[in-house]
Amino acid sequence: MLKLVLIIFITLISSCSKNFKEADVNLIFPRNIAKIEGKHAIFIKDDNFVQKRDFKSDDCESWAVDLKLQELFDNSFLRLSDMMFKNLTVYRGKSIDLERKLKQFKTIIIIEKNLALTSFSTIGNNGIFNIKLNSNFRIKSGQNEIKTNVQSEQNWKKNVFLNCKLVDGSKKASEEAFKSLLNQAYNNIYASVFSLSR
């Protein structure tokens, strides 16, 4: 009997963890990205990420939500930059010698700060999830620079009595939020690099 209970318990745990694993957020990038010639760099500062989470309800299995937003921010900018530039160098850390590095590259993208705000509450019979993303970065070329801020917001709502799973809902909302953010980032980076390189 004890063995049977143990087998059932292990099966339930593995099926739950599988469901949560499937809820990983897929990053959706702009289509037909134009490759930019020349040597360029991206610098991702340490401690550039701020996350605020305000979950006021345990409905819809909200306790299971783990979006790994810092990882998503870093991966999104790294992958987007890699798609945009033919020759890209990546730097990470607290600081770099910008004056020296600027002589080596046409432009350097400096990721200053990424912010993610997530909230979940139950209003009436509805579970409501909200995600706001905000990113500040600079694009430098020689003595010139362009500062940019991109932001996006998405909501998800479902009746708490109708198979409401926030793991799935937060994934959908996050995918749409990052899709919008990446489209804006692409347009801003492309326009800035073109402007600075003229």
Search tags:
198 residues; Double Stranded RNA Binding Domain; elongated; six-stranded mixed β-sheet; 37% helix
Structure description:
It is a single chain. 37% of the residues lie in helices and 38% in strands. With 198 residues, the chain is α/β, with parallel strands linked by helices. The chain has a single domain, classed as Double Stranded RNA Binding Domain, CATH 3.30.160.
**Which fold does the CATH topology refer to?**
Double Stranded RNA Binding Domain
Separation, N- and C-terminal Cα atoms? 76 Å
Regarding quaternary structure, what we see is single chain
Number of strands: 6
| Poorly predicted residue ranges | 4-22
CA radius of gyration: 21 Å
What percent strand? 35-45%
The first-level CATH class name: Alpha Beta
Structural class: alpha/beta
Describe the biggest sheet? Answer: 6 strands, mixed
Shape: elongated
Tell me which CATH architecture applies here: 2-Layer Sandwich
Average pLDDT figure: 85
So how many helices? 4
